[in-house]
Write a structure and sequence with these properties.
27% of the residues lie in helices and 37% in strands. With 127 residues, it is of the alpha+beta class. The chain folds into 2 domains: 1-30; 39-126, Immunoglobulin-like (Sandwich), CATH 2.60.40.
């Protein structure tokens, strides 16, 4: 009888350790604050909702290379940044862009999104 108890105890410990190991392997550790801050520094995020962008003006340092990312908070939108060869829509909602020419560039929604579509305009100021 004592051998059966030992076998069960060993089996319980083994399977418990196995389940714990699987849990640790599958657990997604969130990025550190420094990694998140670094990613945010290298990303220009433009948030679109019906029928506006989250900012009227986005400022970018001349010479910087950033990932321009479109986030659709409400509705389905796409953007074009005129003069910078940037078009984001559908499955392609981010693009790496080098802002090497100072100036003011217009951001427009390029997906017909409703009555306020033509008013979805913002600017990127590269200085």
């Amino acid at each position: 009888m004592q051998k059966n108890v030992v076998k069960w105890a060993v089996a319980v410990v083994f399977f418990g350790a196995f389940a714990l190991a699987i849990g640790v392997l599958l657990y997604q550790i969130p990025p550190s604050a420094k990694e998140t801050e670094e990613a945010n520094k290298n990303t220009l995020t433009i948030v679109a909702s019906n029928f506006a962008f989250d900012q009227s003006t986005y400022e970018v340092k001349a010479g910087s290379t950033l990932t321009v990312q479109l986030v659709n908070k409400q509705g389905i939108h796409g953007i074009e940044i005129e003069g910078l060869d940037v078009q984001l829509q559908g499955d392609a909602l981010s693009q790496e862009v080098t802002f090497d020419q100072p100036g003011t560039y217009t951001i427009k929604c390029i997906v017909l999104c409703g009555e306020g579509h033509t008013e979805m305009v913002a600017t990127v100021v590269v200085a």
